[in-house]
Amino acid sequence: MEIVLSAAIGVLAASGAWLLMRPRSFQVIVGLCLLSYAVNLFIFAMGRLTVGAPAIMPKRGFVNPDAYADPIPQALVLTAIVISFATTALFLVVMIAARGFTGSDHVDGQERAP
Amino acid sequence: MIEPNLILLLVLLPFAGSLVAATLPSGARTGTAWLSGLVLSAGLLILAALHRPVADGQVLRAKLSWVPSLGLDLDFRLDGFAWLFVTLVLGIGVLVVLYARYYLAKSDPAPRFHACILAFTGAMVGMLTSGNVLMLVVFWELTSLVSFLLIGYWHQSPAARDGARMALVITAAGGLCLLAAMLLLGRIAGSYDLDVILASGAAIRTHPLYGATLALFLIGAFTKSAQVPFHFWLPNAMAAPTPVSAFLHSATMVKAGVFLLVRFSPALGGTEAWFFAVTGIGMASLTFGAMVALFRHDLKGLLAYSTISNLGLITALAGIGSRAAILAGIFHIVNHAVFKASLFMAAGIIDHESGTRDMRRLSGLIRLMPVTGTLAIVAAASMAGVPLLNGFLSKEMFFAEAVDWHNGTWLDDALPYIATFASVFTVAYSLRFIATVFFGPPPVDLPQTPHEPVRWLRWPVELLVMACLVVGVVPGLTLGPTLNMAARSVLGADLPYYSVAVWHGLNTPLVMSFVALVLGAALYLGFADRIAQGPEGPPLIHRLQAQRLYERFMLAATWTGPRRLLRVVAPDRLQPQLRLIVLLAIAGTAYMTWGRVGIEPRLGPTAPNAGFLLMWVVGGACAVGAAWQAKYHRFAALVLLGVAGLVTCLTFAWFSAPDLAVTQLLVEVVTTVLLLLGLRWMPRRREEISGDRLLAARGRRGRDLVIAVAFGTAMSLLAFTVMTRPQLSTVGDWFLRHAYSEGGGTNVVNVILVDFRAFDTFGEITVLVIVALTVFALLRRFRPADESAGRPEQQATPTARALRDYMLVPSVIMQWMFPVLIVLSAYLFLRGHDLPGGGFSAGVTLAIAFLLQYLAAHVRWVESRLTVLPAFWMGFGLLVAGGTGLGSWVFGYPFLTAHAQYVDLPLIGEVPAATAMIFDLGVFGVVVGATVLMLIAIAHQSLRSARARAEEAERQHEEAA
Q1: Range of the domain at B924
Q2: Distant-in-sequence, close-in-space partners of B843: CB < 8 Å, separation ≥ 6
Q3: Taking the first listed entry, what is the main subcellular location of this protein, grouped into a coarse class (chain A) (predicted)?
Q4: Main-chain phi, psi angles of B61, to 5 degrees
Q5: Could you give the number of structural domains in chain B?
Q6: Which residues neighbour B405 within 8 Å (Cβ) at sequence distance 6 or greater?
Q7: In this complex, is the C-beta atom of A86 within 8 Å of any C-beta atom belonging to chain B?
Q8: What are phi and psi of A56, to 5 degrees?
């Protein structure tokens, strides 16, 4: 499982990083989305992989923490998901506003000098 | 027990005086002069009071606790050497203040001058009396800083500014080296206390870091004392007013370096490295300074190089380090301060009265200003080492040490010859000073006609020259005891009394002095004309200038280098910056995981599940596909991105994170809608971008591909390495144990968000609100590009009519979904504390419910039936969340303390009723408001551009009519 998930994180991160370095702003925004998947999964994986034991506690009795998934990375990632939506929206608006001002969707506002 | 307070007063008084002087009106010339004169005289009185205990061999101390827990104290100590030095500084200081009163013009702001002089004196006294080496460095740097202000006193002149900056750069850089040396010394000795360090000389000399410590220490001392090759700042600092030069470059600033050499010679000295470095550099400076001084045409330039030469002599003595050498060094510190201060002042008088300092223009001044001339001639003779003057005595002692002291190295053998050679030049430049300025035909064509200065301008010179004479004739009665006291405090109390006398019999040093006098006179008389016509430097050597190297270095370090660096690390373009960030991330990951990647035997990877593998084969392919298609096929890329997001969501669900799965799914929906809305404003991309298939573009893509693959591999390895290590107990265990008992909820993730870490969440929803408002504000001024401004072709008839028909059934379903989604949202919200759900997911769900209405019909249709006020939602949410936090104050708990209990309601049963749920309601409100505001603001742009189109059409219609 770990091999598959780490490979998945790698593929998402590589695709995201490649798009991040592209010249078109839409490419960069898609790249940021992919990278945020990779990073969220990565943070989530720091709590190790647990199958079938969500962090829902019994109401009474002794609690053995080892029997449940680590809630900390989950809480971190939950807020990260919402914030990454907000930053995507912000970047999108900056992108279309810049496109309106400069007439180009190149990230620098003008095409690369040949 | 009055001594400690007196010592503190001694250090603090000049600083206090400086503050007062700085506040006086700029016309108060006499008042500020009195102030600084009195402050410095008060210091001298304190020294007089302290003389008896110091002369008895006591070391007086004063300590102010500063940061006791770190062992940092303001620790002052006054021994014989420091006493002598402080007396010298304050004594010359008083004379300089008096001199400056009559030297400075009316237009020069006197308070600034005196404030700086007093601050400088304070820094100097602090440096001399520091009992802690770190404090010593602080005062040391303070002298560099204030000397910058003093040298640049006439800041209108570019020469003064450049000279000041150069002095600061060189001496402050040296100070940093000194700081490093002191830190090393403190580490070796185990304490930053000066006494401890001086007492642990044996440990320091055998320590492996001795070489580095010595080198850093010497750079600090040599830069300050203007020793070769750091000497060039001193001649440039001559752009300062003459009183400043007389103070800084005779008695104080440059002497700080030799003070340090003498002071630390018991700790660092005595080794061959010390001898070669210190005596070698000292002899080089002695010779070089004397040679260049002979060729300078500027009076102050001659004196500056003469200072370099004399400091070289003292440095050489400190390098020899024998008892007589240390005593001779201290003696020459005093003698040089006295005759050089008087010479600087005399040069200042000549400059002041005649308007020039150029020796090629000055001539025969003895007829016009006989008294000043005589004084200057005596002082210059002392500089040359003429018998019966003080300069002769210390120079004679230097010759004696050069001859008598032996350690068997070649430098030791060469010392008498180098010393005599340098003295020949010393005599020659002193003679040139005397002969050209005061003798010869009467001067012609001077800017002013010289005459004797006012009495008080000459008085300090008279006093100093008197001191030269008295010390020169009866040294044993005047300075002898004090010198022995100072040397004892450096070398130890068991030093036998050294008698300073004028006549030692006919011996080798006397012969050396005689040879130097004769050859020096011959040298000057033989070449006087050629020197006057030649360049400002000895033949051949004047082309070798350390200053050029310095200037080239400064240009590279402060201008070309930073710009080059800036071009690399902060280019104007986004792509190189992002590439740099990615590369840094790779480097960081590689550094952290180097040699640690591997499978931990205790916790190997679990066997992959075929379903999960298949899922990620699809997910990975979609991610790569999105990356591939994002340039020319944006819509396809968006769909592929969505699939990758869904697979991520499934992964969360697979690994026991239902909350994440729900939130990811819902956010995926709104993100997709958001990007779809954005697509409308992107340029068409049907044909190929020009130049996209060129070799350069392919090369860039290939390079980025390599970087990206490296980045992905690094992330993979890091993730795999961490995942296959066993997890130690984390703070998460605590949350798991206490979620129910303390937070009153069974869904730990939600309890963390709204209770344990509620402050973080509060901050986060605030950020969300800020981002939403920023998006809204940015779009208010939005102007679409021309090609996107028109109606998209899908809205043109007849396609639009057909589309409306196709969309009828889905749109009806979407409208019917509205109540269902509201119920779902409420359900997610209410179960959030105990089961997966919560304010975030409920908020996004409700936002989707609104969104679907916009999708189902058009904007106007929705807004005529449904009033959504996103700003109210956000404000309500923030107020509720913040109010919940404040509510806990009412009950005396810290901000955002939650209370939890279960309430037994009839019919419904036991329901959770925690205040955290009210906080969660705030989160819910903010998420709904922010999401809806952002999406609707973007959606409204189509409406606005449609309105703009209608107005445009109307205007054209009117123009046509």
Answers
A1: 750-961
A2: B825, B923, B924, B925, B926, B927, B928, B931
A3: membrane
A4: -130, 150
A5: 2
A6: B320, B322, B324, B325, B412
A7: yes
A8: -110, 120
For chain A, give the number of residues: 114
Q: Is residue A79 assigned to a domain?
A: yes
d(CA B127, CA B149): 18
Segment B612-651, tens digit of pLDDT: 999 999 999 999 999 998 888 899 999 999 999 999 999 9
In this complex, do B582 and A69 lie within 8 Å of one another by their Cβ atoms? Answer: no
pLDDT tens profile B548-571: 888 888 889 888 998 998 888 878
- pLDDT of B48 strictly over 90: yes
Q: Does A81 sit within 8 Å of B605, measured CB to CB?
A: no
CA distance B70 to B68: 5
Nearest CA in chain B to A81: B664
Q: Is A81 on the interface with B (CB under 8 A)?
A: yes
pLDDT digits (tens, 9 = 90+) for B773-793: 999 998 887 777 777 777 777
Residue in B with minimal Cα distance to A88? B671
Report if residue A114 sits inside a domain: no
Range of the domain at A11: 2-50+67-102
Is the torsion defined by CA of B763, B767, B772, B776 positive or negative? Answer: positive
Residue B565 lies in a domain: no
B637, B737, B753 member nearest A30 (Cβ): B637
| End position of a domain, from candidates B539, B565, B598 | B539
To the nearest whole angstrom, how far is the Cα of A103 from the nearest Cα of chain B? 6
The CA distance from A71 to the nearest CA of chain B, in Å, is 5
The answer to whether residue B372 is domain-embedded is: yes
Residues in chain B: 961
CATH of the domain at A38: 1.10.287
Q: Report A:37-56 residues touching B (Cβ under 8 A).
A: 37-38, 40-42, 44-56
Domain membership flag for residue B399: yes
Is A10 part of a structural domain of the chain? yes
Contacts of A39 (CB under 8 A, 6+ apart): A13, A80
- The continuous run of DSSP H or E covering B124 comes out as helix B110-129
Domain limit, last residue, from B507, B539, B571: B539
Q: Is residue B630 part of a domain?
A: no
- A81 chain-B contacts, CB cut-off 8 A: 660, 663-664, 667
